């Protein structure tokens, strides 16, 4: 996307939730004319989390036999959970703390298995063919 396209999208989102009588949409030209520059920023490593990996490439949060060492954040292996999300980082920290404090992992924040929820699957299918 160019900077202009990004700003167009942002203004679209903001206009959709702008409750004022004089909607932001009416001022697009004015905003365009006042913007000096919008420089898109590349994040070349942002997709590294999605790199193909084999079991064992990333450590478990608490490695086997570890009593005081844990790994957190995005490059740990947690079955089923989805990388890139804030939940992934939070859950990794939760797993580490709960393990060392002896709190049963059954008390971790529940992971929703949306892939087994018929209502969600039906909505996803509908969206796919929209
Ligand atoms: C553009 C973008 C959009 C996103 N959108 C979403 C979204 O909509 N929903 C969602 O769930 N997730 C989203 N994410 C992902 C989410 O932001 C991250 O997965 C999450 O913030 C990671 O949290 P973290 O605490 O593990 O790591 P970080 O937030 O990366 O924190 C790591 C911290 O460690 C610091 N650090 C690094 N090295 C050192 C060092 N040597 N010494 C001291 N400090 C150090 C860093 O400065 C940083 O503050 C998005 C990410 C990006 C980049």
Description:
With 130 residues, the protein is mainly α. Helices cover 38% and strands 0% of the residues. It has four helices and no strands. The model has no long low-confidence stretch (mean pLDDT 91). It binds flavin-adenine dinucleotide. Flavin-adenine dinucleotide binds next to helix 3.
Question: Top keywords for this entry?
Answer:
binds flavin-adenine dinucleotide; 130 residues; mainly alpha
Could you give the topology of this structure?
Layout lengths: L2 H15 L10 H7 L51 H16 L16 H11 L2
This protein binds flavin-adenine dinucleotide (FAD).
What is the share of helical residues?
Answer: 25-40%
Attached small molecules: flavin-adenine dinucleotide
Termini distance?
Answer: 24 Å
| Overall shape | elongated
The sequence of SSEs as H and E is: HHHH
Biggest sheet overview: none
Short description:
The protein has helices at 3-17, 28-34, 86-101, 118-128. The protein is mainly α. The chain starts with a helix and ends with a helix.
């Amino acid at each position: 996307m160019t900077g202009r396209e990004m700003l167009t999208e942002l203004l679209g989102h903001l206009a959709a939730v702008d409750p004022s009588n004089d909607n932001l949409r009416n001022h697009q030209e004015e905003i365009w004319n006042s913007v000096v520059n919008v420089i898109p920023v590349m994040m070349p490593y942002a997709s590294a989390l999605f790199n193909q990996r084999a079991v064992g490439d990333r450590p478990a949060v608490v490695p086997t036999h570890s009593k005081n060492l844990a790994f957190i954040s995005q490059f740990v292996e947690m079955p089923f959970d989805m990388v890139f999300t804030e939940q992934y980082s939070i859950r990794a920290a939760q797993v580490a703390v709960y393990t060392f404090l002896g709190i049963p992992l059954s008390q971790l924040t529940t992971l929703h298995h949306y892939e087994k929820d018929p209502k969600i699957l039906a909505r996803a299918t509908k969206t796919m063919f929209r």
